[in-house]
Amino acid sequence: MEEILVNILSRLPVKSVVRFNCVSKFWNTLISHPYFRKKHLNHAKNHARSQKLLSLDCLDDNNRLHFYSYSLSLVQLVKDIRVVDCPSNSNAEGTEVYCSCDGLFLIGIWTEPHVEQPSLLMIWNPSTRESIVLPHSKFNNDEDDDDEFRSTYGLGYDSISDDYKVFRLVMTKDGQNKNEIFALKNNSWRIIEETSSLDWIDCSMYSGGEFLPFVDGAFHWLGISSKLSVVSFNISSEVYRDIPLPEIVCYLTLSRFEYDVKIEVDVGLTVLAGMLGLYYKDDNFFNLWVMEDKHGSSWMKLFTISSYRIYRVIPTYTFSDYQMLLCFQLDSTTRSRFVYRIISVGSFGLNNQIWPLDHDAKDGIVYTESLIFPKLGQ
C-alpha cells in the first residue's frame, strides 16, 4: 500500500505534493524521506511540465529582489508564471545566480557595493522555498585583498558519495589556481591539492564570471594552455582533464589576439539535453556544437544563424523534436532587452519564432522543479 502511494505521489507536481504534507504525520514523513524525493526527481526530469526557467528581476520594492519562474512546456508557455522571493535578501546590494542542479540553485548575495566576492553563498530550492547559507570559504577568511582574485562556482551531485558539492574555481592575479570544493555532508570547504593531472593542464579560465556546466559528473570551463580547450574536473575522482575544441573555434578565437583583429567574439559552454554544448559568436554569425560522446572526442555542429547587431546569444533549453530555446541579448547596457526565440532544426532548414513572455525576462537558468533539499552535515 505504501509503495502504491509513493508511485502516485511521486508523479504529481511539486506544488500538489507540498500540500499533502499537512494531511497527516505519516504523509509528511513519507514525502520528506530522501528516497521519495529522489524518486519524484527522476519522474520530474522526464516530464515537460516540471521544466522551468528562473529569471532574476530587480523590482523597486523595499530593495527586494524577485525571481520569476516560467513554464517551459510548449503546451502552456506562459501560464505558470509566479513570483518567488529569495530568502535573506532584504538588504541585498546585488545577486548572482550561478547555476542549478536537480532543482537547487547556487546564489551569491552581496550586502556591500563594489566588492568582488559575494558576502554569502546560498543553496535555494525555489519550488519548496527552502534555503541554507554556506559557511565562508578558506580564501574568504585568509585573503586580505578582495581584488587579488576572482572566482566562479558550480553545483553538482556526486553519485559516488551521494552528496551535493559546490566547486569554486579561484583565479588569482598571478594566474595561479586555488580551487576549493564544499561537500554538504561534511559542511566544510577543502582546498583541492594539485595532482599529477595538473602537470599538463592550465586551469586558467578564458573568461571569468561564467557558470561551470555540470555534465557526466564533471564541471567544465574554457581554459587556455598552448591553445583554447575545455577543462573538466570530476567531483568524484577530483581529476582534471583536457578536452580539445573544434579547430575552427581555436583558430578564430586565438587569431584575434595574434593579429589584433577588431572583432567582438563570445565563446562559451552550456548544457543542452544533458550534453555539453559549445557556442561561438562573432559580429556576424552564431555557431553551436554539442559533445556527442562522454569521452570528449567528437563535437557535432548543430547550426549557424545570423547574429548581426545582436550583443549576445545564449543557448538556454532543448525541447523535443529538435527545437531549441535561445536567449538574445540585444545590447550591453544595464537595461538591455532580452528576446527569446525557438529555433527549429529540421529537414527543411532552420525556422525561428518568438517565444512569448508576459514580462521582460532577463537571462534565465533552466531547472527542474523538485523536492530535493540536502542538509548541512547530514
TrEMBL record:
Give start and end of each F-box domain. 1-40
Query: Known SUPFAM superfamilies for this protein?
Result: F-box domain (SSF81383)
**Matching InterPro entries, A to Z?**
F-box-assoc_dom_typ3, F-box-assoc_interact_dom, F-box-like_dom_sf, F-box_dom, SCF_F-box_component
CDD domains attached here?
Answer: F-box_AtFBW1-like (cd22157)
Protein name per UniProt: F-box domain-containing protein
Q: What is the lineage of its organism?
A: Eukaryota, Viridiplantae, Streptophyta, Embryophyta, Tracheophyta
